[in-house]
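Memo to structure team: turn this sequence into C-alpha coordinates by end of day. - J.P.
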Amino acid sequence: MSAPAENGLSSARAGAIAVVLIAVLFLSLNVIAERALTGARLDFTENRVYSLSQGARTLLKDIEEPIDLTLYYSRETAREYAPVQAHSVRVRDMLETFEALSGGKLRVRQVEPAPFSEEEDEANAAGITAVPTQLGEAVYFGVVGENSVDGREIIPFLAPERDAFLEYDLIRMIDRLNRPTLPKVGLLTTLPLAGGAGGPQAALAGGGGPLQIYTLLTEAYDIVTLSADLSADDLLEIETLIIAQPPAMSDAAVYAIDQFVLRGGRAMVFLDPVAQLASSGGFPGGPPPIEGDPDALRPLLTAWGVDFAADRAVLDMERALAVGVMEDGRQVARPYPLWLDLLPQDFDAADPATADLARTIRMGGAGFFIGREDAAATFTPLIQTSELSMAVDAARVAFDPQPLDLLRMFAPSSDRYALAARITGGAPSAFGDAPPQDAPTEDGGGAEHIAEIASGLNVILVADADLLDDRFYITDNGLFVSVTADNGSFVLNAVDNLLGSDNLRALRARAPANRPMTAIEDLRRAADERMLEEEERLEAELASTEARLEELERQGKLSDSVFAAPTAEEQTEIARFQAEVLRIRGDLRRVQQDLSKDIDALKGRLIFFNVWAAPLAFGLIAVGFALRRRARTAAKTDKGATA
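Reply from structure team:
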Protein backbone atom coordinates (compact mmCIF):
# COMPACT_ATOMS: atom_id res chain seq x y z
CA MET A 1 0.00 0.00 0.00
CA SER A 2 3.03 2.33 0.33
CA ALA A 3 4.08 2.21 -3.31
CA PRO A 4 1.81 5.04 -4.51
CA ALA A 5 3.15 7.40 -1.80
CA GLU A 6 6.77 6.63 -2.69
CA ASN A 7 6.00 7.17 -6.37
CA GLY A 8 4.35 10.51 -5.55
CA LEU A 9 7.37 11.67 -3.53
CA SER A 10 9.71 10.64 -6.31
CA SER A 11 7.60 12.55 -8.83
CA ALA A 12 7.64 15.65 -6.62
CA ARG A 13 11.44 15.54 -6.37
CA ALA A 14 11.76 15.07 -10.11
CA GLY A 15 9.43 18.01 -10.68
CA ALA A 16 11.42 20.25 -8.33
CA ILE A 17 14.68 19.30 -10.03
CA ALA A 18 13.11 20.00 -13.44
CA VAL A 19 11.98 23.47 -12.31
CA VAL A 20 15.49 24.28 -11.03
CA LEU A 21 17.08 23.07 -14.27
CA ILE A 22 14.65 25.12 -16.36
CA ALA A 23 15.40 28.23 -14.28
CA VAL A 24 19.16 27.71 -14.66
CA LEU A 25 18.77 27.11 -18.40
CA PHE A 26 16.63 30.25 -18.74
CA LEU A 27 19.17 32.43 -16.91
CA SER A 28 22.04 30.93 -18.90
CA LEU A 29 20.30 31.59 -22.22
CA ASN A 30 19.64 35.20 -21.17
CA VAL A 31 23.30 35.75 -20.26
CA ILE A 32 24.44 34.20 -23.56
CA ALA A 33 21.92 36.24 -25.53
CA GLU A 34 22.91 39.45 -23.75
CA ARG A 35 26.55 38.96 -24.75
CA ALA A 36 26.35 37.16 -28.07
CA LEU A 37 23.19 38.63 -29.60
CA THR A 38 23.51 42.30 -28.74
CA GLY A 39 21.47 44.32 -31.17
CA ALA A 40 19.67 41.31 -32.63
CA ARG A 41 15.95 41.75 -33.13
CA LEU A 42 13.02 39.87 -34.57
CA ASP A 43 11.23 42.50 -36.63
CA PHE A 44 7.56 41.84 -37.35
CA THR A 45 6.65 45.45 -38.23
CA GLU A 46 5.05 45.98 -41.64
CA ASN A 47 7.79 48.31 -42.92
CA ARG A 48 10.72 46.51 -41.23
CA VAL A 49 11.36 49.60 -39.10
CA TYR A 50 13.72 47.73 -36.76
CA SER A 51 15.76 45.98 -39.46
CA LEU A 52 18.79 47.68 -40.98
CA SER A 53 18.08 48.59 -44.61
CA GLN A 54 20.27 47.61 -47.55
CA GLY A 55 20.83 51.30 -48.33
CA ALA A 56 22.26 51.84 -44.86
CA ARG A 57 24.52 48.80 -45.16
CA THR A 58 25.81 49.98 -48.53
CA LEU A 59 26.54 53.48 -47.26
CA LEU A 60 28.35 52.20 -44.15
CA LYS A 61 30.60 49.94 -46.26
CA ASP A 62 31.37 52.83 -48.63
CA ILE A 63 32.69 55.24 -45.97
CA GLU A 64 35.94 56.63 -47.37
CA GLU A 65 37.47 58.62 -44.49
CA PRO A 66 37.16 57.89 -40.74
CA ILE A 67 34.07 59.32 -39.04
CA ASP A 68 33.73 59.78 -35.28
CA LEU A 69 30.32 59.71 -33.58
CA THR A 70 29.96 60.73 -29.94
CA LEU A 71 26.78 59.76 -28.10
CA TYR A 72 26.00 61.94 -25.10
CA TYR A 73 23.48 60.24 -22.81
CA SER A 74 22.64 60.94 -19.14
CA ARG A 75 22.12 57.33 -18.15
CA GLU A 76 21.54 57.86 -14.41
CA THR A 77 19.41 61.00 -14.75
CA ALA A 78 17.21 59.41 -17.42
CA ARG A 79 16.67 56.22 -15.41
CA GLU A 80 13.29 57.50 -14.16
CA TYR A 81 12.03 58.21 -17.69
CA ALA A 82 11.08 54.91 -19.33
CA PRO A 83 10.57 56.17 -22.93
CA VAL A 84 14.01 57.81 -23.01
CA GLN A 85 15.66 54.82 -21.36
CA ALA A 86 14.09 52.36 -23.81
CA HIS A 87 15.01 54.56 -26.78
CA SER A 88 18.61 54.80 -25.54
CA VAL A 89 18.98 51.01 -25.73
CA ARG A 90 17.91 51.07 -29.38
CA VAL A 91 20.23 54.00 -30.14
CA ARG A 92 23.26 52.30 -28.58
CA ASP A 93 22.49 49.00 -30.31
CA MET A 94 22.15 50.72 -33.68
CA LEU A 95 25.38 52.68 -33.28
CA GLU A 96 27.25 49.50 -32.32
CA THR A 97 25.81 47.75 -35.39
CA PHE A 98 26.87 50.67 -37.58
CA GLU A 99 30.39 50.51 -36.15
CA ALA A 100 30.67 46.77 -36.82
CA LEU A 101 29.46 47.12 -40.44
CA SER A 102 31.76 50.04 -41.29
CA GLY A 103 34.94 47.97 -41.14
CA GLY A 104 36.59 50.33 -38.69
CA LYS A 105 35.81 53.53 -40.63
CA LEU A 106 33.10 54.55 -38.14
CA ARG A 107 34.18 55.02 -34.52
CA VAL A 108 31.60 55.41 -31.75
CA ARG A 109 32.31 56.97 -28.36
CA GLN A 110 29.78 57.14 -25.52
CA VAL A 111 29.88 59.91 -22.92
CA GLU A 112 27.71 60.21 -19.79
CA PRO A 113 27.30 63.89 -18.85
CA ALA A 114 26.79 63.56 -15.09
CA PRO A 115 25.66 66.74 -13.29
CA PHE A 116 28.48 69.27 -12.65
CA SER A 117 31.04 67.13 -14.47
CA GLU A 118 33.53 67.87 -17.23
CA GLU A 119 31.44 65.60 -19.46
CA GLU A 120 28.43 67.88 -18.91
CA ASP A 121 30.53 70.88 -19.94
CA GLU A 122 31.65 68.95 -23.02
CA ALA A 123 28.02 68.16 -23.96
CA ASN A 124 27.01 71.81 -23.60
CA ALA A 125 29.97 72.96 -25.68
CA ALA A 126 29.09 70.39 -28.36
CA GLY A 127 25.58 71.85 -28.70
CA ILE A 128 23.63 68.96 -27.14
CA THR A 129 20.23 70.06 -25.83
CA ALA A 130 19.81 69.91 -22.05
CA VAL A 131 16.21 68.84 -21.41
CA PRO A 132 15.20 69.83 -17.82
CA THR A 133 13.50 67.30 -15.55
CA GLN A 134 11.01 67.79 -12.72
CA LEU A 135 13.86 67.40 -10.21
CA GLY A 136 15.80 70.28 -11.73
CA GLU A 137 18.45 68.10 -13.38
CA ALA A 138 19.05 67.92 -17.13
CA VAL A 139 18.92 64.96 -19.50
CA TYR A 140 21.41 64.98 -22.38
CA PHE A 141 20.67 62.62 -25.24
CA GLY A 142 22.23 63.60 -28.55
CA VAL A 143 24.89 62.70 -31.11
CA VAL A 144 27.76 64.68 -32.60
CA GLY A 145 29.53 63.50 -35.74
CA GLU A 146 32.90 64.67 -37.08
CA ASN A 147 35.02 63.71 -40.08
CA SER A 148 38.72 64.10 -40.85
CA VAL A 149 38.30 67.44 -42.71
CA ASP A 150 36.60 69.36 -39.88
CA GLY A 151 33.08 68.52 -41.06
CA ARG A 152 30.60 68.46 -38.20
CA GLU A 153 26.97 67.32 -37.83
CA ILE A 154 24.78 67.23 -34.75
CA ILE A 155 21.48 65.79 -33.55
CA PRO A 156 20.87 67.89 -30.41
CA PHE A 157 18.25 65.54 -28.92
CA LEU A 158 17.25 62.02 -29.94
CA ALA A 159 13.54 62.29 -29.23
CA PRO A 160 11.84 58.93 -28.51
CA GLU A 161 8.95 60.16 -30.65
CA ARG A 162 11.23 59.91 -33.70
CA ASP A 163 12.12 56.29 -32.97
CA ALA A 164 10.80 55.17 -36.36
CA PHE A 165 13.14 57.66 -38.09
CA LEU A 166 16.24 56.78 -36.05
CA GLU A 167 18.06 54.87 -38.78
CA TYR A 168 17.38 57.59 -41.34
CA ASP A 169 18.49 60.42 -39.00
CA LEU A 170 21.77 58.69 -38.14
CA ILE A 171 22.53 57.49 -41.68
CA ARG A 172 21.80 60.98 -43.08
CA MET A 173 24.33 62.39 -40.61
CA ILE A 174 26.94 59.83 -41.67
CA ASP A 175 26.19 60.40 -45.36
CA ARG A 176 26.76 64.15 -45.03
CA LEU A 177 30.04 63.56 -43.20
CA ASN A 178 31.13 61.07 -45.87
CA ARG A 179 30.68 63.56 -48.74
CA PRO A 180 33.31 66.33 -49.04
CA THR A 181 30.94 68.53 -51.06
CA LEU A 182 27.18 68.55 -51.40
CA PRO A 183 25.58 68.41 -54.86
CA LYS A 184 24.41 71.79 -56.16
CA VAL A 185 20.66 72.01 -56.65
CA GLY A 186 19.12 75.11 -58.21
CA LEU A 187 15.85 76.44 -56.76
CA LEU A 188 13.53 78.72 -58.72
CA THR A 189 10.28 79.52 -56.92
CA THR A 190 7.79 82.21 -55.94
CA LEU A 191 6.73 80.23 -52.86
CA PRO A 192 7.80 81.32 -49.34
CA LEU A 193 9.85 78.18 -48.74
CA ALA A 194 12.71 79.95 -46.95
CA GLY A 195 10.50 82.39 -45.02
CA GLY A 196 7.53 80.16 -44.32
CA ALA A 197 3.80 80.75 -44.52
CA GLY A 198 2.86 84.19 -43.21
CA GLY A 199 6.09 85.82 -44.34
CA PRO A 200 8.24 88.18 -42.24
CA GLN A 201 5.32 89.24 -40.03
CA ALA A 202 4.81 85.67 -38.84
CA ALA A 203 8.55 85.34 -38.18
CA LEU A 204 8.57 88.54 -36.09
CA ALA A 205 5.64 87.18 -34.07
CA GLY A 206 7.61 84.08 -33.16
CA GLY A 207 6.22 81.85 -35.91
CA GLY A 208 7.14 81.40 -39.53
CA GLY A 209 10.65 80.32 -40.35
CA PRO A 210 11.73 78.02 -43.17
CA LEU A 211 9.33 75.31 -44.22
CA GLN A 212 10.37 71.79 -43.28
CA ILE A 213 10.98 70.82 -46.90
CA TYR A 214 13.35 73.77 -47.36
CA THR A 215 15.26 72.76 -44.22
CA LEU A 216 15.54 69.19 -45.48
CA LEU A 217 16.74 70.35 -48.89
CA THR A 218 19.42 72.63 -47.42
CA GLU A 219 20.61 69.81 -45.16
CA ALA A 220 20.93 67.36 -48.04
CA TYR A 221 22.14 69.62 -50.89
CA ASP A 222 23.88 72.88 -51.67
CA ILE A 223 20.82 74.96 -52.58
CA VAL A 224 21.44 77.78 -55.09
CA THR A 225 18.56 80.27 -55.30
CA LEU A 226 17.80 81.39 -58.85
CA SER A 227 15.90 84.44 -60.12
CA ALA A 228 13.38 84.91 -62.91
CA ASP A 229 16.05 86.40 -65.22
CA LEU A 230 18.35 83.37 -64.96
CA SER A 231 20.73 82.59 -67.80
CA ALA A 232 22.68 79.58 -68.98
CA ASP A 233 25.67 80.76 -66.93
CA ASP A 234 23.60 80.51 -63.74
CA LEU A 235 23.03 76.82 -64.43
CA LEU A 236 26.60 75.81 -65.25
CA GLU A 237 27.31 74.17 -61.87
CA ILE A 238 23.74 73.06 -61.17
CA GLU A 239 23.23 69.29 -61.21
CA THR A 240 19.46 69.24 -60.70
CA LEU A 241 16.90 72.01 -60.93
CA ILE A 242 13.83 72.43 -58.68
CA ILE A 243 11.14 74.75 -60.05
CA ALA A 244 8.13 75.38 -57.79
CA GLN A 245 5.33 77.65 -59.05
CA PRO A 246 7.73 79.68 -61.24
CA PRO A 247 7.45 83.42 -61.89
CA ALA A 248 6.70 84.88 -65.29
CA MET A 249 9.91 84.60 -67.30
CA SER A 250 11.39 85.92 -70.50
CA ASP A 251 12.01 83.68 -73.49
CA ALA A 252 15.74 83.83 -72.72
CA ALA A 253 15.22 82.40 -69.20
CA VAL A 254 12.90 79.64 -70.46
CA TYR A 255 15.44 78.89 -73.18
CA ALA A 256 18.19 78.50 -70.55
CA ILE A 257 16.10 75.83 -68.79
CA ASP A 258 15.27 74.20 -72.13
CA GLN A 259 18.95 73.82 -73.02
CA PHE A 260 19.89 72.75 -69.48
CA VAL A 261 17.50 69.80 -69.73
CA LEU A 262 18.53 68.91 -73.30
CA ARG A 263 22.17 68.82 -72.17
CA GLY A 264 21.34 66.12 -69.60
CA GLY A 265 20.36 68.29 -66.65
CA ARG A 266 17.58 66.92 -64.46
CA ALA A 267 14.59 68.87 -63.19
CA MET A 268 11.67 68.56 -60.79
CA VAL A 269 8.81 70.96 -61.55
CA PHE A 270 5.83 71.87 -59.34
CA LEU A 271 2.91 73.64 -61.05
CA ASP A 272 -0.32 74.44 -59.23
CA PRO A 273 -3.65 75.86 -60.50
CA VAL A 274 -4.78 76.69 -56.91
CA ALA A 275 -1.61 77.42 -54.92
CA GLN A 276 -2.67 78.49 -51.43
CA LEU A 277 0.93 78.55 -50.23
CA ALA A 278 1.81 81.08 -52.95
CA SER A 279 -0.42 83.74 -51.36
CA SER A 280 0.79 83.22 -47.77
CA GLY A 281 4.20 84.88 -48.01
CA GLY A 282 3.14 88.52 -47.91
CA PHE A 283 2.36 90.70 -44.91
CA PRO A 284 0.33 93.92 -44.33
CA GLY A 285 2.27 97.03 -45.24
CA GLY A 286 4.96 95.09 -47.06
CA PRO A 287 5.49 94.22 -50.70
CA PRO A 288 3.06 91.66 -52.09
CA PRO A 289 4.39 88.16 -52.71
CA ILE A 290 5.72 87.46 -56.17
CA GLU A 291 2.91 85.96 -58.17
CA GLY A 292 3.55 82.54 -59.61
CA ASP A 293 2.71 81.70 -63.18
CA PRO A 294 1.87 78.01 -63.72
CA ASP A 295 1.83 78.75 -67.47
CA ALA A 296 5.41 80.07 -67.51
CA LEU A 297 6.86 76.75 -68.69
CA ARG A 298 4.16 75.90 -71.20
CA PRO A 299 6.61 75.96 -74.18
CA LEU A 300 8.75 73.35 -72.41
CA LEU A 301 5.79 71.14 -71.52
CA THR A 302 4.62 71.27 -75.14
CA ALA A 303 8.07 70.22 -76.36
CA TRP A 304 8.09 67.37 -73.85
CA GLY A 305 4.68 66.18 -75.06
CA VAL A 306 2.70 67.13 -71.95
CA ASP A 307 -0.57 69.05 -71.62
CA PHE A 308 -1.30 70.99 -68.43
CA ALA A 309 -4.40 73.11 -67.88
CA ALA A 310 -3.49 75.89 -65.46
CA ASP A 311 -7.17 76.69 -64.97
CA ARG A 312 -8.33 73.17 -64.04
CA ALA A 313 -8.21 71.44 -60.64
CA VAL A 314 -9.04 67.93 -59.46
CA LEU A 315 -11.63 66.72 -56.93
CA ASP A 316 -11.38 63.16 -55.60
CA MET A 317 -14.13 61.89 -53.31
CA GLU A 318 -12.44 58.57 -52.51
CA ARG A 319 -9.17 60.26 -51.49
CA ALA A 320 -10.77 63.30 -49.85
CA LEU A 321 -9.00 64.47 -46.70
CA ALA A 322 -11.38 64.72 -43.73
CA VAL A 323 -11.68 68.24 -42.25
CA GLY A 324 -13.54 69.58 -39.23
CA VAL A 325 -16.44 71.97 -39.88
CA MET A 326 -19.01 73.60 -37.61
CA GLU A 327 -22.61 72.54 -38.18
CA ASP A 328 -25.43 73.57 -35.81
CA GLY A 329 -22.87 74.54 -33.18
CA ARG A 330 -21.06 71.18 -33.37
CA GLN A 331 -17.79 70.26 -35.03
CA VAL A 332 -18.12 67.31 -37.38
CA ALA A 333 -15.74 65.63 -39.84
CA ARG A 334 -16.49 66.08 -43.53
CA PRO A 335 -14.61 64.81 -46.61
CA TYR A 336 -12.98 67.67 -48.51
CA PRO A 337 -12.35 66.38 -52.05
CA LEU A 338 -10.20 69.41 -52.97
CA TRP A 339 -7.58 68.24 -50.45
CA LEU A 340 -6.28 64.79 -51.31
CA ASP A 341 -4.95 62.06 -49.02
CA LEU A 342 -3.36 59.77 -51.61
CA LEU A 343 -2.53 56.17 -50.70
CA PRO A 344 0.40 53.91 -51.72
CA GLN A 345 -1.82 52.12 -54.24
CA ASP A 346 -2.04 55.44 -56.09
CA PHE A 347 1.78 55.53 -56.54
CA ASP A 348 3.94 53.94 -59.21
CA ALA A 349 5.43 50.93 -57.42
CA ALA A 350 8.25 50.63 -59.98
CA ASP A 351 9.62 54.18 -59.89
CA PRO A 352 12.37 54.96 -57.35
CA ALA A 353 10.70 58.24 -56.37
CA THR A 354 7.53 56.53 -55.14
CA ALA A 355 8.28 52.81 -54.84
CA ASP A 356 9.21 52.79 -51.15
CA LEU A 357 6.64 55.26 -49.85
CA ALA A 358 4.42 53.52 -47.30
CA ARG A 359 2.34 56.43 -46.04
CA THR A 360 0.09 58.92 -47.76
CA ILE A 361 0.96 61.98 -49.83
CA ARG A 362 -1.28 64.98 -49.24
CA MET A 363 -2.08 67.59 -51.88
CA GLY A 364 -4.35 70.63 -51.98
CA GLY A 365 -6.03 72.04 -55.07
CA ALA A 366 -3.97 69.91 -57.43
CA GLY A 367 -4.05 70.03 -61.20
CA PHE A 368 -3.18 67.21 -63.58
CA PHE A 369 -1.00 66.32 -66.57
CA ILE A 370 -1.87 64.50 -69.78
CA GLY A 371 0.77 62.87 -71.96
CA ARG A 372 0.22 63.22 -75.69
CA GLU A 373 0.36 60.04 -77.74
CA ASP A 374 2.35 61.68 -80.55
CA ALA A 375 5.13 62.83 -78.21
CA ALA A 376 8.71 61.64 -78.64
CA ALA A 377 9.16 61.47 -74.85
CA THR A 378 7.65 58.81 -72.59
CA PHE A 379 5.01 59.94 -70.09
CA THR A 380 4.83 57.77 -66.94
CA PRO A 381 2.31 58.68 -64.18
CA LEU A 382 3.86 58.54 -60.71
CA ILE A 383 0.83 59.54 -58.63
CA GLN A 384 -2.79 59.28 -59.77
CA THR A 385 -6.22 59.99 -58.36
CA SER A 386 -8.79 57.29 -57.74
CA GLU A 387 -11.52 56.65 -60.31
CA LEU A 388 -13.99 58.54 -58.12
CA SER A 389 -12.61 61.91 -59.27
CA MET A 390 -13.33 64.79 -61.63
CA ALA A 391 -11.81 67.98 -63.05
CA VAL A 392 -13.37 71.39 -62.31
CA ASP A 393 -12.62 75.01 -63.17
CA ALA A 394 -9.96 76.23 -60.76
CA ALA A 395 -11.86 79.49 -60.28
CA ARG A 396 -14.76 77.58 -58.69
CA VAL A 397 -12.54 76.19 -55.91
CA ALA A 398 -10.02 79.01 -55.49
CA PHE A 399 -11.58 80.61 -52.41
CA ASP A 400 -11.98 77.79 -49.87
CA PRO A 401 -15.41 76.38 -50.75
CA GLN A 402 -17.29 74.53 -48.01
CA PRO A 403 -17.35 70.70 -48.05
CA LEU A 404 -21.04 70.56 -48.98
CA ASP A 405 -20.43 73.03 -51.83
CA LEU A 406 -17.84 70.64 -53.25
CA LEU A 407 -20.22 67.71 -52.82
CA ARG A 408 -22.88 69.56 -54.82
CA MET A 409 -20.57 70.14 -57.77
CA PHE A 410 -19.10 66.63 -57.69
CA ALA A 411 -19.84 64.40 -60.67
CA PRO A 412 -17.25 61.59 -61.04
CA SER A 413 -15.74 61.03 -64.48
CA SER A 414 -14.39 57.48 -63.86
CA ASP A 415 -10.97 58.73 -65.03
CA ARG A 416 -7.72 58.63 -63.10
CA TYR A 417 -5.80 61.90 -63.34
CA ALA A 418 -1.99 62.03 -63.33
CA LEU A 419 -1.03 64.31 -60.42
CA ALA A 420 2.69 63.61 -60.91
CA ALA A 421 4.60 62.10 -63.81
CA ARG A 422 8.10 61.35 -65.04
CA ILE A 423 9.10 62.40 -68.57
CA THR A 424 11.93 60.40 -70.14
CA GLY A 425 13.40 59.66 -73.56
CA GLY A 426 13.95 62.18 -76.34
CA ALA A 427 12.49 65.59 -77.06
CA PRO A 428 12.96 68.60 -79.35
CA SER A 429 13.87 72.06 -78.15
CA ALA A 430 10.91 74.29 -77.33
CA PHE A 431 12.54 76.90 -79.60
CA GLY A 432 13.08 74.80 -82.70
CA ASP A 433 16.31 75.15 -84.62
CA ALA A 434 17.47 78.48 -83.20
CA PRO A 435 17.47 80.30 -79.85
CA PRO A 436 15.07 83.22 -79.21
CA GLN A 437 16.23 86.71 -80.13
CA ASP A 438 16.97 87.83 -76.57
CA ALA A 439 19.11 84.74 -75.75
CA PRO A 440 22.91 84.80 -76.15
CA THR A 441 24.07 83.01 -79.30
CA GLU A 442 27.19 80.95 -79.86
CA ASP A 443 28.91 83.92 -81.50
CA GLY A 444 28.02 86.08 -78.49
CA GLY A 445 29.55 83.78 -75.94
CA GLY A 446 26.61 81.43 -75.55
CA ALA A 447 26.76 77.66 -75.87
CA GLU A 448 25.91 75.81 -79.05
CA HIS A 449 22.17 75.48 -79.60
CA ILE A 450 20.74 71.96 -79.18
CA ALA A 451 17.70 71.41 -81.38
CA GLU A 452 16.74 67.98 -79.99
CA ILE A 453 17.95 64.92 -78.11
CA ALA A 454 17.19 61.30 -78.88
CA SER A 455 17.39 60.17 -75.24
CA GLY A 456 18.50 61.35 -71.82
CA LEU A 457 15.52 63.52 -70.90
CA ASN A 458 14.60 63.03 -67.22
CA VAL A 459 12.08 65.40 -65.66
CA ILE A 460 9.58 64.87 -62.84
CA LEU A 461 6.39 66.95 -62.97
CA VAL A 462 4.06 67.53 -60.00
CA ALA A 463 0.69 69.27 -60.47
CA ASP A 464 0.60 70.70 -56.95
CA ALA A 465 2.76 73.05 -54.90
CA ASP A 466 0.83 72.97 -51.62
CA LEU A 467 2.24 69.52 -50.84
CA LEU A 468 5.39 71.49 -49.87
CA ASP A 469 3.42 73.32 -47.16
CA ASP A 470 4.08 72.16 -43.58
CA ARG A 471 0.38 72.46 -42.79
CA PHE A 472 -0.38 69.48 -45.02
CA TYR A 473 1.97 66.96 -43.42
CA ILE A 474 3.84 68.36 -40.39
CA THR A 475 2.90 68.77 -36.72
CA ASP A 476 5.40 70.78 -34.67
CA ASN A 477 4.93 71.01 -30.89
CA GLY A 478 8.10 73.05 -30.34
CA LEU A 479 10.27 70.13 -29.19
CA PHE A 480 10.05 67.73 -32.09
CA VAL A 481 8.43 67.50 -35.49
CA SER A 482 5.82 64.82 -36.16
CA VAL A 483 5.46 63.80 -39.81
CA THR A 484 1.98 62.61 -40.83
CA ALA A 485 2.53 62.02 -44.56
CA ASP A 486 5.35 61.25 -47.01
CA ASN A 487 5.39 64.62 -48.79
CA GLY A 488 8.96 65.39 -47.77
CA SER A 489 10.15 61.85 -48.47
CA PHE A 490 8.68 61.99 -51.96
CA VAL A 491 10.49 65.24 -52.81
CA LEU A 492 13.84 64.11 -51.42
CA ASN A 493 13.51 60.67 -53.01
CA ALA A 494 12.83 62.28 -56.38
CA VAL A 495 15.77 64.71 -56.13
CA ASP A 496 18.11 61.96 -54.91
CA ASN A 497 17.08 59.79 -57.83
CA LEU A 498 17.57 62.62 -60.33
CA LEU A 499 21.03 63.15 -58.85
CA GLY A 500 21.77 59.43 -59.15
CA SER A 501 21.96 58.71 -55.39
CA ASP A 502 19.51 56.21 -53.88
CA ASN A 503 21.18 55.17 -50.60
CA LEU A 504 18.81 57.22 -48.42
CA ARG A 505 15.71 56.65 -50.55
CA ALA A 506 14.42 53.49 -48.87
CA LEU A 507 15.13 54.77 -45.36
CA ARG A 508 12.77 57.75 -45.60
CA ALA A 509 9.70 55.56 -46.01
CA ARG A 510 10.32 53.22 -43.07
CA ALA A 511 8.11 55.07 -40.59
CA PRO A 512 4.89 53.32 -39.55
CA ALA A 513 2.32 53.78 -42.26
CA ASN A 514 -0.96 55.51 -41.59
CA ARG A 515 -3.43 52.77 -42.41
CA PRO A 516 -6.74 54.51 -43.03
CA MET A 517 -9.93 52.80 -41.93
CA THR A 518 -11.53 52.64 -45.34
CA ALA A 519 -14.75 51.10 -44.02
CA ILE A 520 -15.23 54.07 -41.69
CA GLU A 521 -14.46 56.52 -44.48
CA ASP A 522 -17.04 54.78 -46.68
CA LEU A 523 -19.60 55.22 -43.90
CA ARG A 524 -18.75 58.92 -43.64
CA ARG A 525 -19.01 59.39 -47.39
CA ALA A 526 -22.39 57.64 -47.55
CA ALA A 527 -23.72 59.74 -44.67
CA ASP A 528 -22.51 62.94 -46.32
CA GLU A 529 -24.31 61.99 -49.51
CA ARG A 530 -27.51 61.35 -47.53
CA MET A 531 -27.15 64.67 -45.74
CA LEU A 532 -26.62 66.44 -49.05
CA GLU A 533 -29.79 64.84 -50.44
CA GLU A 534 -31.74 65.96 -47.37
CA GLU A 535 -30.36 69.49 -47.63
CA GLU A 536 -31.23 69.70 -51.32
CA ARG A 537 -34.75 68.48 -50.49
CA LEU A 538 -35.02 71.21 -47.88
CA GLU A 539 -33.96 73.83 -50.41
CA ALA A 540 -36.49 72.46 -52.88
CA GLU A 541 -39.21 72.75 -50.24
CA LEU A 542 -38.12 76.32 -49.55
CA ALA A 543 -38.24 77.22 -53.23
CA SER A 544 -41.66 75.59 -53.59
CA THR A 545 -43.06 77.49 -50.60
CA GLU A 546 -41.67 80.81 -51.82
CA ALA A 547 -43.21 80.17 -55.22
CA ARG A 548 -46.55 79.43 -53.54
CA LEU A 549 -46.40 82.66 -51.56
CA GLU A 550 -45.60 84.62 -54.74
CA GLU A 551 -48.59 82.99 -56.40
CA LEU A 552 -50.84 84.01 -53.51
CA GLU A 553 -49.56 87.56 -53.85
CA ARG A 554 -50.28 87.64 -57.56
CA GLN A 555 -53.80 86.45 -56.93
CA GLY A 556 -54.32 89.39 -54.59
CA LYS A 557 -54.82 87.26 -51.51
CA LEU A 558 -52.01 88.96 -49.60
CA SER A 559 -52.72 92.19 -47.78
CA ASP A 560 -51.43 95.44 -49.31
CA SER A 561 -50.05 96.51 -45.94
CA VAL A 562 -46.70 95.04 -45.05
CA PHE A 563 -47.63 95.34 -41.37
CA ALA A 564 -50.94 93.48 -41.72
CA ALA A 565 -51.36 90.09 -40.09
CA PRO A 566 -51.01 87.08 -42.44
CA THR A 567 -54.19 85.53 -43.73
CA ALA A 568 -55.29 82.11 -42.50
CA GLU A 569 -54.07 80.51 -45.74
CA GLU A 570 -50.68 82.21 -45.37
CA GLN A 571 -50.42 81.06 -41.76
CA THR A 572 -51.21 77.48 -42.76
CA GLU A 573 -48.59 77.58 -45.56
CA ILE A 574 -45.93 79.07 -43.26
CA ALA A 575 -46.70 76.62 -40.47
CA ARG A 576 -46.43 73.72 -42.87
CA PHE A 577 -43.07 74.97 -44.13
CA GLN A 578 -41.71 75.52 -40.61
CA ALA A 579 -42.82 72.04 -39.55
CA GLU A 580 -41.11 70.57 -42.60
CA VAL A 581 -37.91 72.45 -41.81
CA LEU A 582 -37.92 71.12 -38.24
CA ARG A 583 -38.60 67.60 -39.44
CA ILE A 584 -35.78 67.61 -42.01
CA ARG A 585 -33.35 69.11 -39.50
CA GLY A 586 -34.30 66.27 -37.18
CA ASP A 587 -33.59 63.84 -40.01
CA LEU A 588 -30.19 65.44 -40.53
CA ARG A 589 -29.36 65.03 -36.86
CA ARG A 590 -30.50 61.41 -36.94
CA VAL A 591 -28.28 60.74 -39.96
CA GLN A 592 -25.29 62.08 -38.02
CA GLN A 593 -26.28 60.12 -34.90
CA ASP A 594 -26.70 56.91 -36.90
CA LEU A 595 -23.29 57.53 -38.49
CA SER A 596 -21.68 57.94 -35.06
CA LYS A 597 -23.33 54.74 -33.83
CA ASP A 598 -22.18 52.82 -36.91
CA ILE A 599 -18.62 54.13 -36.56
CA ASP A 600 -18.50 53.33 -32.82
CA ALA A 601 -19.79 49.80 -33.48
CA LEU A 602 -17.25 49.27 -36.28
CA LYS A 603 -14.40 50.60 -34.11
CA GLY A 604 -15.49 48.23 -31.35
CA ARG A 605 -15.34 45.27 -33.70
CA LEU A 606 -11.94 46.34 -35.05
CA ILE A 607 -10.53 46.76 -31.54
CA PHE A 608 -11.86 43.35 -30.52
CA PHE A 609 -10.39 41.50 -33.51
CA ASN A 610 -7.07 43.39 -33.46
CA VAL A 611 -6.47 43.55 -29.70
CA TRP A 612 -8.45 40.88 -27.89
CA ALA A 613 -9.18 38.12 -30.40
CA ALA A 614 -5.63 36.69 -30.57
CA PRO A 615 -5.00 36.69 -26.77
CA LEU A 616 -8.41 35.12 -26.15
CA ALA A 617 -7.74 32.46 -28.76
CA PHE A 618 -4.35 31.63 -27.26
CA GLY A 619 -5.87 31.65 -23.79
CA LEU A 620 -8.59 29.20 -24.79
CA ILE A 621 -6.01 26.95 -26.44
CA ALA A 622 -3.86 27.05 -23.29
CA VAL A 623 -6.86 26.24 -21.08
CA GLY A 624 -7.73 23.36 -23.39
CA PHE A 625 -4.22 21.92 -23.17
CA ALA A 626 -4.22 22.36 -19.38
CA LEU A 627 -7.55 20.57 -19.00
CA ARG A 628 -6.38 17.80 -21.30
CA ARG A 629 -3.13 17.37 -19.36
CA ARG A 630 -5.00 17.37 -16.07
CA ALA A 631 -7.35 14.68 -17.36
CA ARG A 632 -4.39 12.52 -18.44
CA THR A 633 -2.69 12.96 -15.05
CA ALA A 634 -5.88 12.02 -13.24
CA ALA A 635 -6.27 8.95 -15.44
CA LYS A 636 -2.70 7.81 -14.64
CA THR A 637 -3.26 8.38 -10.91
CA ASP A 638 -6.43 6.32 -11.03
CA LYS A 639 -4.59 3.49 -12.76
CA GLY A 640 -1.79 3.60 -10.15
CA ALA A 641 -4.23 3.53 -7.26
CA THR A 642 -6.09 0.62 -8.82
CA ALA A 643 -2.86 -1.27 -9.22
